[in-house]
User: Fold this.
Amino acid sequence: MRGGDERSGALFSYVDLEARVGKDHPLRTIRGIVNEALAALSGEFSALYAGIGRPSIPPEKLLRAMLLQAFYSIRSERQLMERLEFDLLFRWFVGVGVDDAVWDHSTFSKNRDRLLEGDLAAKLLSAVLSQPRVKRLLSTDHFSVDGTLVEAWASMKSFRPKSLSSGEDPRNGSGEPPAGDGRNREANFHGQKRSNETHASTTDPDARLYRKGPGKEAKLCFMGHALMENRNGLVVDACLTEANGHAERIAALHMIEPRAERPRPITLGADKGYDAEDFVNELRSMNATPHVAQNTSGRSSAIDGRTTRHAGYAVSQRVRKRIEEAFGWIKTVAGQERTKFRGRERVGWAFTFAAAAYNLARLPKLLEAPA
Assistant:
């Protein structure tokens, strides 16, 4: 018998949100891990808020909503709030009831900015990895490191000479733009010599002009760094620096040093960009074996047969490439290929938070796998 096309729904619903989500849905595992990590950070949240006044959006709900934004590639807070309005899965994960009103996107952004002031992204990453069921998945002996460029939220037209005052047009030396030009007027940089020593972005002064390699275009960007453990390819540390030729090696030493303070030596895999004598010697001094790819293009390598003869060196060179999977997810899925924040601290917060989201996205399958 054909059913009727009834358009009016029931006045009341007695189905709980918990029953709407499948028992094998991966967000169930993620939500349990996230809730445990957020409970461990309760003291950190309390330090960010005043003891009196009107209650704001709970930081736990803010962070859960931001994780969904990363998981589902939602590009703005406005779209996130629209999705939260009608999606029962989103309401369940964040902790918003069926009948609860959703926040205005501007209110959400304003409350989120308070979290950006604290080092909560790194603490969330650490709180997730320190849980016993996650900790057993991590290697404490073998690591890989790499860096990637994060394009700044600033156009090349904002890269102006430092000697010019704000509002002054660099092409004619006057304080007014040429007649007939709009706000986003045409610009021709052909023949101009521009560098970070003489120019700076008026939109984001922390961004630096940087070229990824020969033949590549120069962009205003930052440099993100990640340290990966080699057993399951989870990111155990992340940070962001200004883009320059030494940033990758300095950040690598900063991230690996706490993990090298142990009697047993560890290994650190890296590409040939890390093949520098000072970097290799610094690793060896801190009881870390440098499994760095040899750079033999026109110069002698700092890595010799003492390292390459061991079978573990070849394994590290093969496994270290998995860190590109993390960068691909962070930049493509979590939307960090071009940041929407300005300032090194805020961009670094978003990059580290995306690294934590990447780990969470991979944990359901890793935890289900046989030991």
Remarks:
- The domain at 139-152+220-343 is CATH 3.30.420 (Nucleotidyltransferase; domain 5).
